[in-house]
Amino acid sequence: MYITIFNCLRKIEIWFLLSSIFVLILSGCSSSSNSNPPEMEPSTPKPTTGIWSAPAYGVVVNISDTDYTFYQFTSQFCQTYSLEEYLGLDFDSLIDSTEVNTDNGTLITTLGGVKSPGISMEKQTALPQQCIDNYVASIGETNYEFNPQVEFEIFWSSFNELYAFFDLEEVDWAEVYEGASIAIANDTNKEALFSIFAQMITPLKDFHVDLVDHELGFEYTSPAKKPNLDIIALTDFLEIHGLEALASEEQYLQYLEYLELQKDSALEVNLSHVAEGESVQFNDTLTIFWARLNDNVGYLLLNTMSASEIGGGNNVDDNLASLSTTLDQVLTDLVDVKGLIIDVRYNEGGDDFVSQYIVGRLTNQSFGAYSKQARLGAVRTPLQSIVIEPQGDNQFTGPVAVLTSNTTASAAEVFSLSMRERINTILVGEATAGGFSDQLIKTLPSGTVFSLSNEFYLSVTGEEFEGLGVPADITHAFFTRAQREAGQDPGFDEALEWLLNF
Q1: Closest by Cα among 60, 104, 51 to 80
Q2: How confident is the model at residue 75 (pLDDT cuts 50, 70, 90)?
Q3: What's the rounded Cα separation, in Å, for the pair 256 and 251?
Q4: 451, 492: one domain
Q5: Which secondary structure element, helix H or strand E, spans residue 450, and what is its range?
Q6: Which of 66, 273, 286, 347 gives a 20 to 30 Å CA spacing to 208?
Q7: Which residues of 321-343 are buried (b: 16+ CB within 10 A; e: fewer)?
């Protein structure tokens, strides 16, 4: 950063010298030897320049006029954090996705558009003291050295200070510390440490808690509280074959084939209702399907809320443009339907801003959808209210039946939570998975990446559904073995009947 500043100063000096010569040339020999060049006005720092901290997320960023350094910290340790590596976020992208309130010294950043409605940060006069006194070098930096004790302390403290849901599974995190610390010695290697961390997060039963080590090729996710489609199919597969667990690669591949066949058969039940002469349409990435059904009802299947999976690229704006184009076509093809079934039973989430945009294509008036806040020690940050605004040139405003399941997760739950507040809408099926918080991504000095849940999502009436899921208005189980074998989908039938009698 100091080299960058030095180079900028050198450029100013050279410009100043050339400007002086230019003035002398224009004035010729009549120029007085006592003439002085005009004084340069001091540059005004940009509003974003400064040190900004969000303790509820354990992050602080030092922004200059031309560069930035992002840090993650606990009460004891501090490390740099590469937003460019993990989010592809360069300086211009950070600044373009940031708004500053100079009156109260706060900054809201969406981190390149991926964080909705954004992280609120407060201006500071200096970096946290731990970033000065107890900075820990990460792999690739000078003085880095693998230290299992430090890795453990950072990992445990990050959860202890930021994780929001220990109470849901009655996990005593201090007790977890005592048990795990005994297993860690100075010679504990990365493989053993990864295993210890995996055991620590297992009792949380939170599918937003991940552990990844690319160097080792290891990945682990805390188990979900509810069985999703994969687990349901696995349970059935093991029972059919008289197995207690998958014991070979061959059995695993057989299970994957069984899983896909079961998903296809469940979907075929719905697509058997496609009207004569109509066909199923889909976007380029095969993540969105739609069709006109019998009795002039529309069907829209959303397989993901991930912008990159829907759009097929890495640029947020391009992916949203692709989504917009797809929904334009959906609404054109289904322009005069009596009602619309939106199926998110296979949808395991993605990005909140995608969910918000899709809901915005289903209303012609703004409405409050939900609010969110983060854990801040023993209290919480102020609520951020999310208001849905109409999106696109045209919207569908007729009745909508949303199909949900235990697999409907994360951003798909945010979609379901928002749709509860839309007029002329009903939720049919199972309560959703019960995991709302965005994943707060953290790294350890060795390069191991982990995530945790630090945010609370609340309905407009203040209800919290973390661990429980958004409840359905009309309840029906989904993807049971009996339903699949009989070719039945009672939730779909109920949604269709509700729309036809609306």
Answers
A1: 60
A2: very high
A3: 9
A4: yes
A5: strand 449-453
A6: 286
A7: ebbbebbeebbeebeebebbbbb
